[in-house]
Amino acid sequence: MSSSLKITFVVAANDKDILQNNLLTSPCLQGAHPHQVLVQEGFASAATAYNTALTQGTNEIVVFIHQDVYLPERWLSDLEATMQSLARVDANWGVLGCWGVKENGDGFGYLYTPGQLVIGHALEAPEVVQTLDEVVLIVRRSSGLKFNEELPGFHLYGADLCLTAAKLGMRSYAISAFCIHNSRQHFRLPSEFYDCYRHVKRIWREALPIQTSCIRITRFDGNLWRRRINEARHRIFSRAPQRGPRTEDPRIILNQLHLKERT
Q1: N or C: which end of the chain has fewer CB within 10 A?
Q2: Exposure on the CB side of residue 165, measured as CA atoms within 13 A
């Protein structure tokens, strides 16, 4: 199924092999294609990397995406169908993504992630969510949305962007555009994550509680302390569990999923 979309893909990369073996192997980025690919390297935060790319982008639709994501052949046509659907009901949408959560913690979307395998399912229509996971974030350049450069590092910038959109009267949606997130999933979060947590909590204190894909940000930090206690318990017992390893070639994952569908 073909698509007429022309997209600016933006990726903050720190490993050329991971980038080359995952995102850049996606069918839509093979051969002569109409898309723009901006690889952002050496930035101190996702916000500065992505805002810089916004000034360089040449297409209306901008996809901010992790370097370890693989986009199957029909990803573009699924995205185009979603945007056509939204044009009829909410042409002023803010942010789209492949996985998002509502305020009550319910998750929506459709993707593969190691350890959890396929999460979500194909959606009949885009689902309004409070925040989106950073694995894939899609915006319109004409919306004027930008990332908050007060936010350090490379965590929770998707939640921050969705909250910015909501403040400007724009909704965020989880969409049905299946992709492979070929990441190495770890149980423990880095200290940088908690720095980002504190920044989001301070910046958006009037919006609390904020539900993200990995943690609930609240006034009294209940979810944060439970997570840190669990991490400390694992450190004490010298266990460093992984939720799932990265596969050398994400197309292997896709082939395995297709095999399961046929059996």
Answers
A1: C
A2: 29
